[in-house]
Amino acid sequence: MAHHRTSPGSTLKPQLFLPLAESNALLALSGSESTPPRAPVASDATGELHKIASGFRKWTSTRTEGFPKMPVEKQLYSAFRDLVLIVMHCLRGIVLEPPEGCCLLLPYSKGSDFKPVDSNETDKLDQVLVVRAWDSSVAGVAQPKYADTFAVVEVKRVEKVSFDGSSRAVRDGGAVLQKARQQLVRYNRQVYEHQHNRMLAWGLTVCDSLVRTCLFGPDRVLSSGDIDVATPDGRSVLVGLLVNLCLCEENRRGYIPTIRQHENAGGRYWTIRCNRISSSGEQEPEMATFYSRGPTMAADRNFGRHTRGFPVAERLEDIDSPMLFAKVAWHYVEGGAASEQHSELLHRDISTSTILVVHSPLAGTVHGVLVDFDCAISVGVDRKARPERTGTLPFMSVLNLEANWRERTELDDWESLLYLVCWLATFGINKEDRKSPPVPVYSRTHH
């Protein structure tokens, strides 16, 4: 993973009024002994911070008070959430000039386990940290997705205490931690499956007052030591970790900066910035932006090289609009055939699988691309008869079907395109069209 220096614009400076009070709260939370003098703040803002802070005080005082205050595991979900929220509140008020690429890490809003809305498994998560833009509202996320998850948080209790404190059960701490790590490994497969720009994944385990961070690399899992939030030093380390993860560069958080996820009315799509490859096979110096609906080869596993294969186009079978197909076909008529004449090549296999649809979401354009030239032949000066039958049967030209000795020309490819149009008009563009009932004759002739 490439490392870059931290941006100089990420310095923390207290401002007047509310930001200074937030600075006090952050320093007190991290266990600093020296706290700047207070400044007047709005009572509602102060009340909001105290309300959030009260949620995790029982968690951070479990060891100093001598007995656990949170006998139920789910109470730790809310305690972790409240600690993260107050750090985000304070951070937003302290950072004057946020560096480029900074973000907020927000937790799940409720104090119960949940299933991410885009999950294709039955597993429920305890807590998550979700990436949000720096100017987003600091609040818990109501419906987290794996697609937005920065880190999965697995919570366990080593010592279970009944609500009334009458009974206790102490488990093996090492076994509990190992089980938490195993669950993180399983959940992170979903993170890689939904985030095609992820090269490293993060996870946190919370066992009573002890927090550990895990970094999942391509060949190993790195784990921190125990971060005890019941001590000032432990809180300082955890707060520092959250702050630095928000302010650092994207690649330090485990993302590939040249691959980005976007969403519009048509759904999710990806932009990939990379260098073009010239016809001679050399890499061009200028970066180009390519668009894709998603990879055909995903990296949905924890270890190994996280290599993705992004098609920059769609198959005809994946589009759902006859008008869209008409545009693609016309683009071939306008440009594809002319390109064949210029290159003096015959494709000889025009079919539903050899014409791809390329979208340019920002420009709002669409065009067709002819691929798979395995059957192509040269029709230059040295033209020769090709009697062999080549191509996809429903779309072969008559000469091709008959294995005729007559010379093949551009008209054979045009003829195949005509058969392709007739085929799609008869049987439908995609599988959904073929499942739909036929339109009655009277509804087509009487409007």
Largest sheet: number of strands, sense, barrel closure: 7 strands, mixed
Beta-strand proportion: 15-25%
* Helix vs. strand class: alpha+beta
Strand and helix order: HHHEEEEEHEEEEHEEEEHEEEEHHHH
Poorly predicted spans: 1-24, 31-44, 64-68, 441-447
**So what's the overall shape?**
elongated
| Helix content bin | 25-40%
Mean of all residue-level pLDDT scores: 75
Number of helices: 10
Report the count of strand segments: 17
Explain this structure to me?
This protein is of the alpha+beta class. It is built from ten helices and 17 strands. The strands form five sheets. Strands 1, 2, 3, 6, 7, 8 and 9 form a seven-stranded mixed beta sheet that branches. Strands 10-11-12 form a three-stranded antiparallel beta sheet, with no helix packed on it. Helix 2 (43-60) packs across helix 3 (73-94) and helix 6 runs antiparallel to helix 8. The radius of gyration is 30 Å and the shape is elongated. The N and C termini lie far apart (63 Å). Residues 1-24, 31-44, 64-68 and 441-447 have low confidence and may be disordered.
Briefly, what is this?
This protein has 447 residues and is α+β, with helices and mostly antiparallel strands. It is 32% helix and 20% strand.
Keywords:
alpha+beta, disordered C terminus, disordered N terminus, 3-stranded antiparallel β-sheet, 447 residues, 32% helix, 7-stranded mixed β-sheet, 10 helices, 17 strands
Strand-helix topology:
Blueprint: H1 18-29, H2 43-60, H3 73-94, E1 103-107, E2 127-133, E3 149-156, E4 159-161, E5 168-170, H4 173-194, E6 201-207, E7 210-216, E8 221-223, E9 227-228, H5 232-247, E10 259-264, E11 267-277, E12 283-292, E13 314-315, H6 322-343, E14 345-346, E15 355-360, E16 365-370, E17 377-378, H7 398-402, H8 410-427, H9 431-435, H10 441-445
Parallel strand pairs: 3-6
Antiparallel strand pairs: 1-2, 2-3, 4-5, 6-7, 7-8, 7-9, 10-11, 11-12, 13-15, 14-17, 15-16
Helix pairs in contact: 1-3, 2-3, 6-8
